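Lab notebook, bench 4. The sequencing result for the construct came back, and we need a structural model before the next group meeting so we can plan mutations. Quick request posted to the team channel:

Model the 3D structure of this chain.
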Amino acid sequence: MHPPTGATAPGFGFFHPRIPRYDSFRYKTERLGLTGSIQWQPSDETLLTFDALYANFKSQRTEQYLSALSFSRSGTGKPQTVILPGAVVDATNSLVAGTFNNVDVRVETRFDRLETEFQQYTATLHQELGDRLRIDLLGGYSKSDFSNPIQTTVAIDANNIQGYSYDFRDSRFPRFGYGSFDPANAAAYTLGEIRLRPQFVQNDFRVGRVQAEWDALDTVKLRLGGDYKSYGFDSQEFRRALETDVAGLLAPGQLAGLTSPYSFSRGTPLNGSPRTFAAPDIDAFDRTLGIYSNTGRFALTGITNPSARGSFRTVNERDLGFFAQAVFDGEVAGLKVKADAGVRWVETRQNSTGYTNTPTGFQLVEVTRTYDNWLPSANVSIEFAEGLIGRIAAAKVLARPDIGTVNPGGAFSISGGNRTLNFGNPFIDPIEANDVDMSLEWYFAPESALIVGLFYKDISSFVATSTQALPFNQLGLPNALLDGTGVLPTDLFQVTQPVNSRGGDLKGIEIGFQAPFRFLPGFLSNFGIQANYTFVDSDIEYPLSTAAGAPVIIQPLVNLSRHGANGTLYYEDKRFSIRGSVAYRSGFLTNVPGRNGVPVGTAPNFNASSGQPTFNDVEGTKGTINVDAAATLKLTENVTLTFEAINLTDEYIDQFIDSAADRLSVYHHFGRQFYFGARFKF
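Done. Here's the predicted structure in token form:
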């Protein structure tokens, strides 16, 4: 091997793209939504309301990938790859450009058919019992059925390509070259994999609530009540016994007839990379091989399949709560004051099941746990002058972990170069925090306001995700799970599991402004503006493993931008309205620590931000500016036409890994979206 230019690490160890590729996604969606409401007031003291909602969302998604797969796998992959003279390693120890021999190229076509059906029903009763006592009852039920009956991927391979090259020095638009190989030549490929992975998820939710309110004084109300909630979650997945079992399915020369040319859209800059390539035609594969027959080599299995078993999991959660609250609305020292104080007790009972692999097979694991919390809160607002209001609020708050994270089993998966093992954690504690919020609001004219707010959260318990790269032979699983996959027991798997941390603090400021231009003459008075800005600073602890006393790193809260701003200019009259909006959010983190990093303390260290994970300390998304527009035209009292334009500037989603090296992870754009619609009111 020739040392790349700039390589200084011992043994020439450096980072390289795991699966360098361009990809394409195409969507076709249909949406249907129906709502209805009935109210009945048999007397002045009684009001009954029933609301119903039905929604159906259907989507078809097609994906195409042209990638160099061997950089991500062992065996016949990376160990056989030869780096030719002229390769370049930059100051962050990243192999950003090079030409290579013995590279395996893969083209994948994936097709998904998805449908979600949602229904919700809510009934309420408001009953006055005299002048000072009233009762409110609520009961509700909702159900969501998600089905992905077709999730099919067909991969074709061209192995040991000579002269393959990539260049990430123009990091967001890399250039890929394929030497003498023509990606559009269908005859140059062989069949690599056929993946069939239908999935199904069911969720249901039931709620009941009762509240009694008594006017103890003209200025004081007392509220007592309780509520009951139950959640249900059930998921399944099915797969072929061995997705690489494709030998002999096609006769020599037959594959080319099961492909078709595919071209990336002209709106995607490729920096000289090939735009057209041969891609599998999934419909042709079905017509020829009957891949959806669920028989023979295309038979699907579930719980008995090690790769699908982890998706068979259930979670049932029951929440029981009681609350008491005192509400004041009156004057104090000549000022209008509104205040409330109360406490809520809630008990959470969770039951979860999931399958886990063992050295001799697998077993069903069931875990039941119960915990309770006291959640006090208080709010005060004071009107210092007409239209000038100050508010302060304090509360202890609780956010239960996502239903999917309390799975007691694990999901084991090998998809091409991706090797993962995702564990749940049925003993994960909820996120808990103490909140304090303050604001000063000035309503200086009708429909006009200037609002400034401060907020602080002391997060005492947080749910983080621990990510470790571990060899398969250290996972305690039988090597037989790897049979036929081409994966070695020494290959690294990305192992993730939810873990609690001690949290941290979060603080910030919000500023909001809105005003119609009523001071302007004529139709100009129908214009107006809305704007807001938010600044957030946070420091959260993230454990580096699930072990007790594991080292932690301090980073901002994931998925939260430090800066955010929105501005809208609108026009609105009795029949027509139009608005244009600009939304900005600064960059934010998505994973801490990042995946595929070098273990702590491993030399060399080129990352000035580390000292915790030596490399790939975080993953994140860079800031975005989105421009949208919307308009409505009221034809009659019952018919309204709608128009919506989203992402008018075709903003890219720019995801990176490593805060210092800024290595490209994903750089996607989705184009401009336009929606036309009509609303009918009966």
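The first helix runs from residue 282 to 289.
Will bring this to the meeting.
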